[in-house]
Design brief:
The N and C termini lie close together (about 10 Å). Strands 2-3-1-4-7 form a five-stranded parallel beta sheet. The chain has a single domain, classed as 3-Layer(aba) Sandwich (Rossmann fold). The protein has about 220 residues and is α/β, with parallel strands linked by helices. The protein binds adenosine-5'-diphosphate (ADP) (2 copies).
Length: about 220
Amino acid sequence: MFGAVVVFIGPPGVGKGTQAAKLSEAYAIPKFATGDLLREALKNGTPLGLEAKKFMDAGHLVPDDIVLSLIREKIQAIPQSSGFILDGFPRTTAQARSLDDILKKMCHNVSLALEFVMDEEDRIRRLSGRRICPQCQRTYHVSFAPPKKDMVCDSDGTALVQRTDDDEKVIRQRSAVYWGATNPLLSYYRDRGILKTVDASKPIDSVLTDIRNLFDQMK
Ligand code: ADP
Ligand code: ADP
């Protein structure tokens, strides 16, 4: 059993969600993406989801209290010995401190922060081909990860859609937020000696192999 807590860090489109899904399956560990939790809250019409929508549509960070209220209960429900992956959380140093507090109470701590690195313009081009299943949030790509049947989800047959925030203007805004608010997290984890990087420009399966090698060193 893989018992480490791993945090994925990187700007939109580097492939965090894609790898989190594959690793979650390969190691039989949970993964949580705050973006998915927020989109799900919105789909269910909850007050938190509706409040978050205006920030997400504009490409801004959703306030910490909303994000924390969604992620806290997910983390606290995990058995102590199980590892898990966090994708898209924490996104600020304040969120990283809150995560440390939550984990401390569970006698756990972040073991690895993984930075996904790739060229900016390639990443933005990659994002324009992203499609998601609005039902189960599974992610596809028109060229690099197409569904088996034309533009419907492999799991539930729902028609795939483009995320409303995957338009170029909002993508650039989200990238700016990353470089401003999230990038400082790298020094937070580097100072603790738990930051590693992965070359996210490689094909999906090569990135997966590289991360599996890192995970296997930690087991
Ligand atoms: P991507 O995978 O493209 O990086 P996400 O699905 O992770 O995008 O996030 C989509 C949006 O959800 C973000 O632009 C932001 O508005 C909100 N969001 C997700 N995670 C967080 C977080 N940890 N803190 C604040 N806002 C968040
Ligand atoms: P993030 O969660 O970091 O925002 P995603 O995992 O959603 O990124 O990936 C963004 C898009 O790029 C998706 O359409 C995904 O299918 C595709 N993708 C992910 N990793 C790769 C890769 N290594 N090579 C090519 N396309 C990729």
